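Batch job 17 of 40 flagged for manual review because the log was empty.
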Amino acid sequence: MTTHFEFWDYFIFIAYAVLILGVGLWVSRDKDGHQKNAEDYFLASKSLPWWAIGASLIAANISAEQFIGMSGSGFALGLAIASYEWMAAITLIIVGKYFLPIFIEKGLYTIPEFVEKRFSTNLKTILAVFWIALYVFVNLASVLYLGSLALETIMGIPMIYGVIGLALFAAAYSLYGGLSAVAWTDVIQVIFLVLGGLVTTYIALNTVSGGEGVISGIKTVYEATPERFAMIFDETNAYYDKLPGIGVLVGGMWVANLYYWGFNQYIIQRTLAAKSLKESQKGILLAAFLKLIIPVIVVVPGIAAYVMINDPEIMARLGDSALHNLPSLEQADKAYPWLLQFLPTGMKGVAFAALAAAIVSSLASMLNSTSTIFTMDIYKQYINPNASDKATVNVGRLSAAVALVIGGIMAPLLGGIDQAFQFIQEYTGIVSPGILAVFILGLFWKKTTNKAAIVGALVSIPIALYFKVAPNGWSTASIFVDVPFMDQMGYTLLLTMGVIALVSYMQHKGADDEKGIIITKESFKTSPLFNIGAFAVLLIVAALYASFWN
């Protein structure tokens, strides 16, 4: 067993990189006699089949923050972090049934475009600027940072070179080809992602069991640390502030998931590029089933790593190499990179290709969506409304490149954060409740007005910041001070919805808004296949929670 890459590891990883670049550039080429237009570049010509949509949704979602950040959280607090994945499966079903029909019927390119059609150009611009800032300064930067951390830990590559390498890899095909290149390469990426993740899980569990296999490994891990298999924490748990018990099931987790899967441009853009609504819903269903198995490849390895470093016999078997980059509760994000060091030759290349696939596919998705929002909602709105297709596509490429450069500059500045997955969730949670409130009421309550939506979006920020920064006892009259951030998101959502409802009522005295969306039963009619699949997902999630409640 060696901690270094050998010939076959490099061969497999380079072969993966060549394959992705080759496929990305091949699908990016201009067809004979046809130059890319906006629909080709930003929505893949609206030609994606269901299996490409499902694979691309998962590839865009699973990134370094899951492989490294969620494994780190698995190491520190256990299986409970899998709530983000298993509840996401239910969220995807909700998005497919209740959100997509409206989005696709309106022929959207971007989520801010929906805001303009439902509310106003002013609110659309506010949210477009917010999303661009969030993608560049939080999402792009964090994915580049965590990916470079893995390269540094496993291969000794200095972080700055890792940031540059990953950025250039993602840019090589995504900037030129647009969503088509991103989505079709994602089909390959997700195969590497799942298989490579399963390899790491297998090796970790097999090591824990002393070579007696996965089943024995699971049993050993469970017996060694049963408390790390509790899905619902009580208030005595040290990590209750991260995952506040039953509040995970009925509170802020819904805010995080509905915002992310329903109104996040770099996720929802794939579904908008479908051949049809039914094709898009089938893709959503595939992604929901894939989400059920993601904890096996991103959380279980972290728990296994915790058992390994606390078992002197296992550490002795691993030898001196086990002491290299050792994870701890204070540096939990080292857990997954640490495990990769001990994979056999060849398998290390496969697992590292999986990690690279997760990083690069997410980077490419964020770049494409950032450029889509900037080009369609800022450039064509305010700078050049009559831009030709060629100019539009070129601006999309240029804006993606600028976003990548800024994200690359910001990435090293994130050094020192631990449990990055939780970090990202917590800071995104400051703004997501207000945006979710605007969208939910805008979609399903016809009385919601533009003025109320703007007021609600702006007021939600100080509400969220109050919960986050108010010290314990700062306001003894309030029950909302010093609560877990997930509960903070739930309270912020409810208060923001109350503000929007109040302002809407004061403005129109209970009358419907002129831009209110008319909804009928037929709007949400789904196929028997979707209904059966959705029911199966619900049953599986219920069974998982029943099995690991506490």
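Reviewer: the log was empty due to a logging misconfiguration, but the result itself is present. The chain has one domain: 7-17+44-419. Unflagging and moving on to job 18.
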